[in-house]
Amino acid sequence: MIPVTIFAGCEIAVIGLGLSGLATARALESGGAHVVVWDDKEVARDEAKAAGLTVADLASADFTKFAALVLAPGIPLTHPEPHWSVRKARDAGVEVIGDVELFFHERAKAEAKGKVIVITGTNGKSTTTALTAHLLSAAGKRVAFGGNIGKAVLDLEPFADDLTYVLELSSFQIDLTPSLKPDAAALLNITPDHLDRHGALEDYARIKAQVFAQLDTDATAVIGVDDAPSRAIAETLHDSFAVKRIAVGGTVQTGVWAEDAVLVEMEAGQEIGRAVLDGIASLRGAHNWQNAAAAYALVRAQGVDADAIQQGLKSFAGLAHRMEQVAKAGAVLFVNDSKATNADAAGKALASFDDIYWIVGGKAKDGGLNGLEPFFAKITRAYLIGEAADEFARKLGGDVDHVICDTLERAVAEAAEDAGRSGAPEPVVLLSPACASYDQFANFALRGDAFRELVMRLDGATSVGGQGRAA
Length: 471
Hints:
CATH superfamily of the largest domain: Mur-like, catalytic domain
Radius of gyration: 23 Å
Helix content: 25-40%
Number of strands: 22
CATH architecture of the largest domain: 3-Layer(aba) Sandwich
Number of domains: 3
Shape: globular
Strand content: 15-25%
Largest sheet: 9 strands, mixed
């Protein structure tokens, strides 16, 4: 835990009692603050009471007595409208911040600060964060990683000179962190997502770009340039810190570009290093080449040489629910990509395989399957589940053979049977839903776990060496 001492002796309100909210309350109390917590869900309030926290209905509280409101990132700050607690705080002139802001405040006053790497982007940030942490650890550095993945930032180890923090941050977290000041920051990509929480793509991109706003002269900015919003941000990065561009299928003057599973490191137009991804199942597909290129650039900025990075890449197991190769049954490969909760993410998986038996559906996001048309020829059959099944059936029409299965259980059974008799060299049963999960599952992880369990019950299913499980 990182005790938060900046509010010692003050009253602090904490709204939202998930992992980060509970960690925040504990860290504040450990640092001497008087903390009052609330969550709109009764079950969360009960858990907080059981943990010994002071729970009070803040809707009727006098917010002028609070030094700050610490808001969980899942609670609306601006759109579609501010949460009632945000309105009360602003009316009282009280600062609204998040747990990552507390992390950076504490770091600023700490004698031993360590290094901080921040990674964001619409897609790929979890894999890039885990890979960056893995490469640093494999090179002998002491690492703590968390944020939007794994542990909440205030549950990480206390600051130390030999410690490197690798933090995944969502746009929600960045929006609550005005003091965000890492030693290296990466923005992987920007595609339309969470617009219900940010209002417009331009606002979403502006918030993402804040990871670079306060970099010092010895810091490094890593930015993908394969999409227009990120390229526009890259053009604004003319400060004194180092800027490393990332591209897939196109070269860069300074940074890392990737093509045909090879990473090429460039400095002022000259190649200075490379790494090979061919044969690394956890980094299959062009989207993972982008993730690996960004991680390579971040780790090189921390002084790790290219040979050590190559060795670290070979031992990366990948993350659960992100193109996780679960099992084989005969020639059939079963892949769990439950984390693909939008069309753009699903497209990355569809681009990585052929002879696909695609399990898709759930609670549809804006745009549905738009943009996936170029991949339809790779899909032998689609198995439609959840609320989006009828809508997706209309979208696929006569372009993709499909069947409405409604449930994941039925989809796995039918896809496995069809793929098993296909005769293709390696047919792939792919769960890549392009949808949120919460029509049938509480989150994407539970959906992925259910897929894995269903697959492992199939006759002849053999685990693929644990590849893809969280490391």
